[in-house]
Amino acid sequence: MFDEKLEKDFLAILNEELIPAMGCTEPIALAYAAAKGKKVLGKDPERIIAKCSGNIIKNVRCVTIPNSNGMIGIEAAVALGAIGGDAERNMNVLEAVCEEHRKSVKNFVEAGKCSVEFLDSEIPLHFIIEEFYDEDCVCVEVKYSHTNIVKISKNKDVIFEIGENEVSQEKNADRSGLNIQNIKDFADFIEISKIKEIYDLQIKCNMDIAYEGLSGQYGLGIGRIIKYSYPEAVITRMKAHAAAASEARMDGCEMPVIINSGSGNQGIASSVPIIVYAREKNISQEILYRSLAFSSLLTIYQKEFIGKLSAFCGAVSASCASGAAITYMAGGTIKQIKDTIDNTLANIPGIICDGAKISCAAKIASSLDAAMMAHFLAMQGKAYEAYTGILKEETEETISCVGYIGKVGMKQTDKEIIKLMLS
Q1: Structure pTM?
Q2: How far is CA 250 from CA 152, 354, 361, 414, in A?
Q3: Considering 73, 78, 127, 386, which has the largest number of Cβ atoms within 10 A of its Cβ?
């Protein structure tokens, strides 16, 4: 049996985090807020100002926006949301965009009616969208997570606002019970019927975009290159499918992805390799569901220490979770699962995030390579000892240390990356 409260909490966490999103989540977040603003304004804006924190600028400037005919950048994302977006569709806000909208957005952006300003904020995920029509101005402010609107105002009237204490606690599910043992116990004992719908959708969406990416029509065609250039093996196919899915998403594919911790790439890296492995090894659907639950929660647990956006590449956390889930799937002990995590984090805890772009796919492939090497070492009873580098006595301590490095230690690194990109 598994503790009833923890089960309820963990299911709530999965339902909060594993949601569909079309396109890279940062431009989609901007489009969502702009669509909300337009609804309050009551008409298409005449001009827009987007005030964005450095991490938002970093993660939007290089990705192709879905359903846009190849548009790139903050101005296009915001204008698409304001002119053609449907806020009721949440992170699929741009599904409603049509050709007429795209033409209007192109003209709007080319006419310089949307401007971007740097928002000097200590909150990595923070932006304000201001939309104007005649003498009216609507302002929408988002903090901490992609759809967490903290304030909406029209002219001098505040229409909606939540306090700072509420903002910092914007996640509804209690996450205090997250640790490796509890995550494993949940995966072991949860009734499959309670998670089947979540993971059926994840399997469908994330594998569909992987197959689309393998067509080679996106970016550099990295998935196909990995598949046909590396030796025939399950690891090759795991890396090829995950990288292809990421590359398609970063290059404007309109298919939705089931995200994790606010990131489609993390959603892909924490699921696609496990699905491919299970299919290759003829592992039962029940064990696949349990392994996906393990991976999802381990990814979320790691990201609790790092935060939604930072200078630390999220592909590392998600791939580490995938490697540990493969160990779980293979019948590994709790020690072997922890050893897989430690072995991964002993190897690649320093990959920087220099924004969302098609090369994120390569980082996923490299991180998965490291995670699978960690898995094989662990299954042979091999693990790096505590106090080797940043490794601690307990794996949870190691995870928290890596999180501290990503969130606090790399804060100046993040600023320097943003400065270099903006220059």
Answers
A1: 0.91
A2: 30, 14, 8, 21
A3: 78
Residues in a beta bridge with 52: 118, 127
If asked whether residues 202 and 322 sit together in one domain, one would say yes
Residue 174 lies in a domain: no
What does the pLDDT read at residue 365? 97
- Does 16 map to a domain? no
Q: Cα separation of 178 and 181, whole Å? A: 8
Q: What is the band of 1 on the pLDDT scale with cuts at 50, 70, 90?
A: low
Residue 101 and residue 38 in one domain:
yes
Strand partners, 149: 142
Range of the domain at 120: 23-168
Please write the tens of the pLDDT for every residue from 345-370. Answer: 999 988 999 988 999 999 999 999 99
Taking the C-alpha atoms of residue 147 and residue 141, their distance in angstroms, rounded to an integer, is 10
Task: Identify the bridge partners of residue 127 per DSSP, sorted by sequence position.
Answer: 52, 142
The answer on pLDDT for 170 being more than 70 is: no
The answer to whether residue 13 is domain-embedded is no
Alpha-carbon dihedral sign for residues 360, 365, 369, 375: positive
Residue 159 and residue 289 in one domain: no
Measured N-to-C along each axis, helices 285-306 and 4-17 cross at an angle, to the nearest 10 degrees, of 80
CATH number for 304: 1.10.4100
Check: CB of residue 243 under 8 Å from CB of residue 225: no
Q: What is the mean predicted confidence (pLDDT) over 376-389?
A: 96
Residue 3 lies in a domain: no
pLDDT in tens, 26-66: 999 999 999 999 999 999 999 999 999 999 999 898 889 99
Instruction: Report the distance separating Cα 301 and Cα 369, nearest Å.
Output: 21
CATH number at residue 122: 3.30.1330
Give, as one character, the DSSP assignment of residue 392: -
Q: What pLDDT score was predicted for residue 169?
A: 43
Looking up tokens 């598949």 gives 227
As for how many domains the chain has, the answer is 2
